Predict the structure of Endonuclease/exonuclease/phosphatase domain-containing protein.
Amino acid sequence: MLSLNCCGIWNPATVQRLIDVNKKHSPNIIFLQETKNQDENILKETESLQLESHFLKSGGTERPESLFSNFRYFLSSCDLVDLRHSGNFFSWRGKRGDHLVHCRLDWTLANSAWPDLFPNGRSQYLQFEGSDHLLVISTFNSKRKKPQRIFRYDRRLRDNQELKLLIDKAWKENLNLSVMNRISRCMHAISNWSKNHYVNIQKTINQLRGELDIAMTAHTIDDAYLSSLN
């Protein structure tokens, strides 16, 4: 299951990130929150949330312990526990006045029967990108096989002369094959060509994503640098 507080799905970076994560993890369930921007500032909404302890907040003014009692009571009365997790759990980044604050606002909770039903279940906090919330991926079975990727032809390649020659060669290489087999050969030729030509682009994208995540988790604010990365 993939969960993301989008803070507006209109952001192209958010859409592309969801496409990439879906390809990589193939989640059965995608849970998107706040897909439309509201007039109210998101900080007003997060102000009403109560955290379990001070250790789940970094920066800003420390909150009194009394604010956490209702949340703890909610967890106890509903028999909910925090699912095992990895990654940076300070899943939200924002400003309160002049202070930069990192909070754990995104949780994966399960009841006491969960460990027996899904002993390998866990969640992972991914990188910041396109939102002030981290993506959270929750796995019920770590050994689940990802479904085979479906081939989709990219129409942007239709005028690529190099690829046209490659397809023509794959189609005519063995005229004794059936039409389906010849189509399959063309599909493999296109897939291999795409992997070889897009590998450098993907490396650049991953590098920029890493730099963005470092900037978002830093304890200083550099809005100009963040804008350049976005």
Notes: Helices lie at 12-25, 42-47, 69-77, 114-117, 161-172, 179-217, 223-229. The first strand starts at residue 2 and ends at 5. The chain is about 40% helix and 15% strand. The chain has two domains: 2-148, 151-230.
